[in-house]
Design goal:
This protein is α+β, with helices and mostly antiparallel strands. Helices cover 28% and strands 23% of the residues. It has 2 domains: 185 residues, Roll (Pnp Oxidase, Chain A); 88 residues, no CATH class. Helix 9 packs antiparallel against helix 10.
Length: 297
């Protein structure tokens, strides 16, 4: 494993490692305005949610590498402490990238990148009409640390396109197509084929990894993800359920394979369990795994 001390590397070299591993990162497509009314639109991938009460977004434009000067976004925020954070989806990504060009100060990147200005309701900077989510924000603080300007924003009004709203009135992740930044020229696309669900263990207390029998924990077939699923159950199947499952046709076929020396019992059980866990059928997987006992034969 490579080990680096950031203080011993050129900052741009370490930056390439950092952005290639702390990824994918959401993109803050920030629209700002100066005191003369000139609009700026720029994307920043050092960005995320940092609070819910009040709702806080944080993004961090770095100073320019060539001369250490502040970017137009920060200069604008120092004059008018308001920003719209527009979220970026796949349909916008090429135009968004075009807006990141270092145009001269007072250039309107809405015009240069072909986006449409939409008037905000509570603040002066305009929204990006093509974006499917906008957050009107007031600036709470800009904190400079080295070459970075950490911008702390409070959301005072939010807008969401009906195109990403589900039947329950909330954001339907399968209707979104967000784009995130990776290292170099690479991006990630979080569309329906790329996203997946992981059940949160917050509403219950699972048995934990340490309660999984050692023979299962040391499996050469089950992965760490599989073991995490197994450890997230509150209780194991009952002895009655285990014995009843032993009489099913699939278990009888497995027993027959083992008796005729075609395969090892544990391998067959772990293989069946892994397929079920890939389908998030955790209880059914446990029923297979708990059959691994000499008495079965």
């Amino acid at each position: 494993m490579l080990t680096f001390n950031p203080k011993e590397l050129d900052s741009r070299v370490f930056y390439s490692y950092l952005t290639g591993t702390v990824a994918p990162r959401p993109i803050a497509f920030a629209s700002t305005i100066d005191k003369s009314g000139n609009v700026n639109l720029s994307p920043f991938s050092f960005f995320n949610i940092m609070g819910i009460n009040p709702p806080i977004l944080v993004f961090a434009p770095n100073n320019r590498g060539r001369d250490g000067s502040k970017k137009d976004t920060i200069l604008n925020l120092e004059e008018v402490p308001e920003v719209v954070i527009n979220m970026v989806d796949y349909n916008m990504v090429q135009q968004m990238s075009l807006s990141s060009v270092e145009f001269p100060r007072d250039t309107n990147e809405f015009v240069k990148s072909g986006f449409t200005e939409e008037k905000s309701i509570l603040i002066k900077p305009p929204r990006v009409k093509e974006s499917k989510a906008h957050f009107e924000c007031k600036i709470l603080e800009i904190k400079q640390i080295g070459t970075m300007n950490l911008v702390i924003c409070e959301i005072i009004l939010a807008h969401f396109s009906e195109l990403i709203i589900g039947k329950n009135g909330k954001i339907d992740q399968q209707k979104t197509d967000w784009v995130a930044r990776m290292g170099g020229d690479w991006y990630a696309r979080a569309n329906e084929s790329a996203i997946f669900e992981v059940e949160k263990p917050t509403s219950k207390i699972g048995i934990g990894y340490d309660a999984i029998p050692e023979k299962i924990r040391l499996s050469k077939i089950l992965t760490g993800n599989h073991l995490g699923q197994l450890g997230n159950v509150e209780t194991l199947p009952s002895q009655e359920e285990i014995m009843a499952f032993r009489d099913t046709q699939i278990m009888q076929e497995i027993i027959e394979q083992v008796l005729y020396g075609c395969a090892f019992l544990d391998n067959l059980l772990h293989s069946e369990a892994s397929k079920l866990l890939n389908e998030n059928k955790v209880k059914e997987a446990w029923l297979f795994l708990l059959q691994a006992h000499p008495s079965i034969l």
